[in-house]
Amino acid sequence: MTLDRRTLLAGAAATATLAASVRAADPVFQPDISLKGKSVLITGCSSGFGRLAAELLARQGAKVFATMRALPRPEAEQLRIMALNERLDLQVIALDVTSDQQVAEAVAQAEMAAGGAIDVLVNNAGIGITSPVEVQDMEATRLIFETNVFGPHRMARAVLPGMRKQGAGQIIQISSQLGRVIAPYSGHYSATKFALEAMSEQLAYELVPHGIDVTVIEPGGYPTKVWVNRNAYSLALKDRAEARHTEGYPQQVARMGTEDGSGRTNDPADVARAIAALIAQPPGTRPLRLPVAGGSKPQVPINAVTAQVQTEWLGNSPFGPLVRGVHER
Known about the structure:
It is a single chain. Helices cover 50% and strands 11% of the residues. The chain has 13 helices and 7 strands. The protein has a 7-stranded parallel sheet with strand order 3-2-1-4-5-6-7, sandwiched between helices. The two termini are 23 Å apart. It has a single domain (5-327), classed as Rossmann fold (3-Layer(aba) Sandwich). With 329 residues, the protein is of the alpha/beta class.
């Protein structure tokens, strides 16, 4: 099928209806849900969404492998003490998603402790480095892609053989609204999240025959420690940036490393609850994308239109069963 601009514009008229159907299919968190019997590996659990998800899922009965880099560290000890005091099935594992060796070792350790394949992988670890794109040197570019794109890829490859063997599994990717819309001067953050979105959608298609679901959570802005880490990375970039690149953006460069997310009032636990609801949802019914935000969700119509385009383009092709298996849920 050939899609021209007129066809796409005509299709946009149905966006509101499609978007409503996407929202209607969103999972709903129930405080009394039980995740007992589920093994869940989460990356980036030192703070923010990862830490909150580790706590919530463990309290809902899941066997949680909370991973973080640079152990030992106080955040790991805090999680261990909490799990001991509350008698939760939670284990802290050292894992830097930029390391092939640590990814392999952490997944092997978790699978051994779980007695088999990991049921759910939550790829949460991520970083931001803010500046005009021209100012992003190769050191910053490699670091953010290593963490936000190659890291989830490493993790998926590590858990998928086990998931495929058991014929079931779930991968939850933490993306962002900025994985579908773009804000100027955000460095390569959108570039990495766009890449994660594309990789995840392709993975979702390819895993339909294996009974493995993939969902991309797209959070809005939340007051997590990501702002602190982002400022550190951005300041380091500003310190080594060359004047020939920074001189075109004086106001934006002056703000690098000074972002403040403390004024945001949305509850970061929204994302943890969304993760729990997705895990509790029956296999084969989970949405490909799940926007989560306390305010506007600008990506909703984009998600609806792209699902429509994918289905109209490939729905009757040899790839049709894979594409429809993801979008017609």
